[in-house]
From TrEMBL:
InterPro entries named in the record: FAD/NAD-bd_sf, FAD/NAD-binding_dom
Species per Swiss-Prot/TrEMBL record: Arabidopsis lyrata subsp. lyrata
Pfam families: Pyr_redox_2
Protein known as: Pyridine nucleotide-disulfide oxidoreductase family protein
Gene Ontology MF term list: electron-transferring-flavoprotein dehydrogenase activity; flavin adenine dinucleotide binding
Described purpose of this protein according to its UniProt entry: Putative FAD-dependent oxidoreductase.
C-alpha cells in the first residue's frame, strides 16, 4: 500500500472524502491553511443542478464540469474511491493510505460517473444527440431532475412529444402542494403529458419496439427514455469502517450542531449524507462546508481565535427551473411560478456564482 504523507504542517492534515458540491468547497477553502487531500473517484467536480441544461446544450457543460485541480491549486487529489477509515488513516481502492488529523465526509449519493472531465463532456454530447434525433421522449421520475429535464426539452425542442411518468400522487414531493401544482400546470401548458401514480417497465420496450408499458396498463411510445429517480446515499461503505455506529437507520451520518460526527471531535460530515432534517439542496451543502471550514480552522489554532460555529437549518426554500426563463419557487410565505423567479435561477442556474466561490472565472472555462 502506498502511504501519502503530508508535508510540513504538523497537526494540520485534512482529508476530504467526496468531491461534490460540499466537498469541493471545503477542500478549496482549506487548501492554504492545511495540508489538504481530496479523495474522489472522478477527476472533476460538477455543478449537478445545471446538468439538465447540459443535456440540451452540451456547451453549457464546459463551465459546469470542472477539473479538481483547477480550483485546488495547493491540495492533493487522489482519484480513487475511499474504501476504509481507521482512527488515523483513510484507505482508497488504488491502495493509497492517507493519514489525517481532520476528516470531512462529503460522499453524497451513489452514482455512476465517467472518470475524466472529457468523458463527462462527451456523455452530454451523446445525450443531446439522443434527444435531438428522437421524435418522442419518455422521462421516468417526477422529482426535480425529471421535471427540470422535461422543461428543458419542452422549451428547446417544442416539436417533440414529452411524457413524464411519476409513481407518486404529485410531482416534486419534496416541496409543497402549491409548488407541485404550479409546475404541473406549466408542463401541461407546454404540451408535456404528465402521468401520476404509475411506474414504467423499462424492459418492456425492446430495441425494435419503442412502446413502454406502465403499471396502470397504459402504453407509451417513445424513441428514447431517461430515468430520473433518486439515488441511494453513498454511505454503505462506512459500515466496514470505524464509523459503522455513526449511521442512523436510513444510512445517514449522525452529526452534532458543529457538523462533527456524533461522538467524534475531529471527524465531520457535510451535505446530503448528514441526518439533519432539512431539504437536501446544493446551497445548503455549501453552507455546511463553510461551517466546517470555520470549525477546522478554529481547532487548528487550538481554539485561540474564537468559538466554534454551529449550524442551524434555515427556512425551507426551493427553486425548480422550468427551461431557460421560468421557474417555480417556494419561499417561506409565498409560492410563485414564471419569469420573475426564473430571473433568480433559470438563465445561468447559479453557475457563475458557484464557479466564483471556488476562485474561478464565472464566465470562462
Amino acid at each position: 500500500m502506498e502511504g501519502i504523507e503530508s508535508g510540513s504542517r504538523q497537526g494540520k492534515r485534512v482529508v476530504v472524502i467526496g468531491g461534490g458540491i460540499a466537498g469541493s468547497l471545503a477542500a478549496k477553502l482549506l487548501q492554504f491553511d492545511a495540508d489538504v487531500t481530496l479523495i474522489d473517484p472522478k477527476e472533476y467536480f460538477e455543478i449537478t443542478w445545471a446538468s439538465l441544461r447540459s443535456m440540451v446544450e452540451p456547451k453549457f457543460a464546459e463551465r459546469t464540469v470542472i477539473d479538481h485541480k483547477s480550483y485546488l491549486k495547493q491540495g492533493r487529489v487522489v482519484t480513487s474511491p475511499a474504501i476504509n477509515i481507521t482512527e488515523s488513516d483513510v484507505m482508497t481502492e488504488d491502495g493509497s493510505v492517507i493519514g489525517y488529523d481532520y476528516l470531512v465526509i462529503a460522499t453524497g449519493h451513489n452514482d455512476l460517473f465517467p472518470k475524466t472531465r472529457q468523458e463527462k463532456l462527451s456523455h452530454y454530447q451523446a445525450e443531446y444527440e439522443k434527444i435531438k434525433s428522437s421524435g418522442s421522449v419518455l422521462i421516468v421520475g417526477g422529482g426535480p431532475s425529471g421535471v427540470e429535464l422535461a422543461a428543458e426539452i419542452a422549451v428547446d425542442f417544442p416539436e417533440k412529444k414529452v411524457t413524464l411518468v411519476h409513481k407518486g400522487p404529485r410531482l416534486l414531493e419534496f416541496v409543497g402542494q402549491k409548488a407541485a401544482d404550479k409546475a404541473s400546470d406549466w408542463l401541461e401548458s407546454k404540451k408535456v403529458e404528465v402521468i401520476l401514480n404509475q411506474s414504467v417497465d423499462l424492459s418492456s420496450a425492446s430495441d425494435g419496439n419503442k412502446t413502454y408499458r406502465t403499471s396502470g396498463g397504459e402504453t407509451i411510445h417513445a424513441d428514447c427514455h431517461f430515468l430520473c429517480v433518486g439515488k441511494p446515499l453513498s454511505s454503505q461503505w462506512l459500515n466496514g469502517t470505524v464509523l459503522k455506529d455513526s449511521l442512523d437507520g436510513k444510512g445517514r451520518v449522525m452529526v452534532d450542531e458543529y457538523l462533527r460526527i456524533r461522538g467524534r471531535s475531529n471527524l465531520f460530515a457535510i451535505g446530503d449524507i448528514t441526518n439533519i432534517p432539512e431539504m437536501k439542496q446544493g446551497y445548503i451543502a455549501e453552507t455546511h462546508a463553510n461551517v466546517v471550514v470555520k470549525n477546522i480552522k478554529v481547532m487548528m489554532s487550538s481554539g485561540k481565535k474564537k468559538k466554534m460555529s454551529t449550524y442551524k437549518p434555515g427556512p425551507e426554500m426551493a427553486i425548480v427551473s422550468l427551461g431557460r426563463k421560468d421557474s417555480v419557487a417556494q419561499f417561506p410565505f409565498v409560492t410563485v411560478v414564471g419569469c420573475l423567479p426564473g430571473l433568480i435561477k433559470s438563465k445561468d442556474l447559479f453557475v457563475g456564482k458557484t464557479r466564483k466561490a471556488r476562485g474561478l472565472n464565472p464566465k470562462l472555462v
